[in-house]
Design brief:
375 residues; five-stranded mixed β-sheet; 12 strands
Amino acid sequence: MAWAGKFGERRFLYDELGLIDEEYYVGIKGVRGVGKTVLLLQLARNTEKSVYFSADSVLIKPFTLYDVVKALAEMGYRNIFIDEIHRKPDWSEDLKSLYDEHEVRVFFSGSSSIDIVTLSADLSRRVVLKELPPASFREWLNIKRGLSIPKHPLEEILSRAFDLSNMYIELAGLWREYMEKGGVLYPESGFYDALENSIRKVILEDLSALREISVKYETDAYRLLYYIAKSAPFEAKYSSIAKELGVSKNMAIRLVDDLSKAGLIYAVQPCGSSRKEPKLYLTVPLRMFFARKGFNVNIGALREEFFVNHMRWVSPICYLKGARGEKTADFKVGNAIIEVGEKSKSRYQRPDYIAVDGLVTGRGRVPLFLFGLVY
């Protein structure tokens, strides 16, 4: 556990987990590489009578999760930190039994596709499940650049754009670098190899909890991610995905749903009760990862993806779409209508605010990079 000591910076969720009532077990889910393991180790390091282990360790393969935790309880441990819990068969049933015996408290991590509620109604009453999102622009700067930038609520960013732009003027040009190597927290050396391995594990291992993974399914999942990465905003619709992959529309919907549950895709739904299709975005930094395979990224999609990847964690977000030929702003975030565009973009579309490149403020303009400071 001493290994965790070299990670001084903590993800924002660390403080929230410390406030959860001791009567509950605590689960942390999230896409690979966002810092779940380090978070568990940091918590274990600062908790008395604690021990950490990974559920996919070869040393415990012959034993059930229940048996391992019972043995640790007999050794005097009272706080058990379990990483990759979804890799152990029957883990939810074992957790329920352990909870009912009240000998230990369990903290665990798992993939984004874990859903306690659907696994067991009994377990859902015993576990508080939190999602650790990809590291924000702010967290990435603090962890990778050694900065100490505090969180700034969305309301403050919208109302104090001029002051915050002056305060953080040196950060304005770094959001593109964040889109290339942000979100996940892999070391600089071997970053893209680690990311590629992570994507492969999500598709082959994490999604296996949802359905059987065939070679064709794996191939279609990769092709879908690539297709979204090279598309402009709202080009990747279910019908176009089905045509691109050579699958039925129902299969295209299923692939999008599975990869959304796994944390690789985020689907922004239309505002209102319309049945229009969602706008599809990738989790940072997947768009730039796939761009290394030989295409130019659509800058509009990149801007929107930065915006969406941050707003989705702090406020309800939906996209606006008018009738045929009618121009509208891009998104509704909470009660604010926000357009995402370049610094020369005018307000003819009548948004409340425009998220722009650079440092231009005034007349509703808010520098895009400031939205990366919200968590």
